[in-house]
Amino acid sequence: MTKVSIYTKDNVTFGFESKDHATGIDEYEEIVCNGVSALTQTLYFSLLEVCGLDENKIYDYQEDGYLKVMIEDDAYLREDVKTLFSSMELGLRLISKQFPINLEVIKLEVQND
């Protein structure tokens, strides 16, 4: 099962972690994995290309079946960034609704320091 954790501060998304892609539960796993990858990678590159965020202000780590993206400054409060995160979350939740045994999406509130 693919799991996506969406991280928020004061109910505003600032990052996500996607893991356990392509574990082969059933024939739909590849479809789900590809959909999750398309949404999460499009978000990352849109933060850079569309929103113009500095890549040095975005923590990203990727390996096989794993992607983590976190905005490291207050740019996550910008309306364009909020819209991108909301769109990604909507897409992920729609996939999860159709394929609930293949994708789990959870939202985690992080306490401010």
TrEMBL record:
Show the PANTHER family listed in the entry.
HYPOTHETICAL RIBOSOME-ASSOCIATED PROTEIN, RIBOSOMAL-PROCESSING CYSTEINE PROTEASE PRP
GO function term, MF aspect, one: cysteine-type peptidase activity
Alphabetized, the UniProt keywords read: Hydrolase, Protease, Ribosome biogenesis, Thiol protease
List the Gene3D superfamilies hit by this protein, alphabetically.
Cysteine protease Prp
For the keyword NADP, the answer is no
Give the UniProt family note: Belongs to the Prp family.
Q: Name one GO biological process term.
A: proteolysis
Q: Does the keyword field hold Hydrolase?
A: yes
**InterPro entries, sorted:** Peptidase_Prp, Peptidase_Prp_sf
Q: What is this protein called?
A: Ribosomal processing cysteine protease Prp
CDD domains the record matches: Prp-like
